């Protein structure tokens, strides 16, 4: 088939863009695939950051007005459109359509032409049913195995896009984790390091936020890494003992479900390398972290610090929980993602 993959956010190169690139490269083995994007793909940067080769894929840059996107996609005459652009309301200009939903923002207007809606977690699936009254199939995002672990060091890791807490940004709460780390240091006997890794968002305020973190992180032990390669990120995952996650903790009552972590791919990447996750108890992490077995869930920063101190003081527990984290992560690896998408594409192709 001729398959169009639509994503307007390749300028930021987050988890959704990695998912789009991986799927497009995979489908291109047996189909004719084009990626439709807001600007030219930085193909070498995608290879550098994600270790995904899209060099041979056709890339069609869309008109500046989203009102013209349906016509631009239709002109390529695709048999199938896969829309993996966050909050998109592009009507489906192809005979078949898959809408990949990361969270159901707004209403469902414009999605009538899609035969399949996928959800990146059961959490998202539930909110699609509640907010859109539409069925969805769970297709967990593709987790890239980051192991095997090397001898673990006194490193706490967080991997997330640096975006300011404004507008519709999916705020990752690095500032809260930085404050928690400074509280942790005098409570433990051994020296520890905190490493933040991620790309800076494209909005002006995002860079201001990242720079403010840099200014606050000048004490020893805190490191910020912007735009690192996949190989460098893998090395940090393999060395890290713990993975801290705080997305959603600014809304502990769940009054704004979009603010929660919809799935949490980096949590599972860390688990695949044996880093024990300590994630906020909300959204997708409740599906991926088995509390007390493969990691811990917390609702208040005090709990995060309590669990961290307990693990630091119990090396035998750390080794056992690290192994459990690796085993758990295998249920969400990229082969599972691609198999699920292959099955959906094949079903639509047969129809």
Can you give a write-up of this model?
By secondary structure, this protein is α/β, with parallel strands linked by helices. Helices cover 37% and strands 17% of the residues. The chain contains twelve helices and 13 strands. It has helices at 15-27, 43-50, 69-75, 122-132, 174-184, 204-216, 230-239, 265-272, 285-288, 301-312, 315-329, 334-350; strands spanning 2-6, 32-37, 58-61, 80-83, 96-101, 116-119, 137-138, 155-159, 193-198, 222-226, 242-244, 276-280, 296-298. The strands form two sheets. It has a seven-stranded parallel β-sheet with strand order 3-2-1-4-5-6-7. Strands 10-9-8-11-12-13 form a six-stranded parallel β-sheet, sandwiched between helices. It is globular.
Q: Name the overall outline.
A: globular
List low-confidence stretches.
Answer: none
> What quaternary form is this?
single chain
Tell me the radius of gyration: 20 Å
- Give the class from helix and strand content and strand pairing: alpha/beta
Order of helices and strands: EHEHEHEEEHEEHEHEHEHEHEHHH
What is the strand and helix layout of this fold?
Layout: E1 2-6, H1 15-27, E2 32-37, H2 43-50, E3 58-61, H3 69-75, E4 80-83, E5 96-101, E6 116-119, H4 122-132, E7 137-138, E8 155-159, H5 174-184, E9 193-198, H6 204-216, E10 222-226, H7 230-239, E11 242-244, H8 265-272, E12 276-280, H9 285-288, E13 296-298, H10 301-312, H11 315-329, H12 334-350
Parallel strand pairs: 1-2, 1-4, 2-3, 4-5, 5-6, 6-7, 8-9, 8-11, 9-10, 11-12, 12-13
Helix pairs in contact: 5-10, 8-11
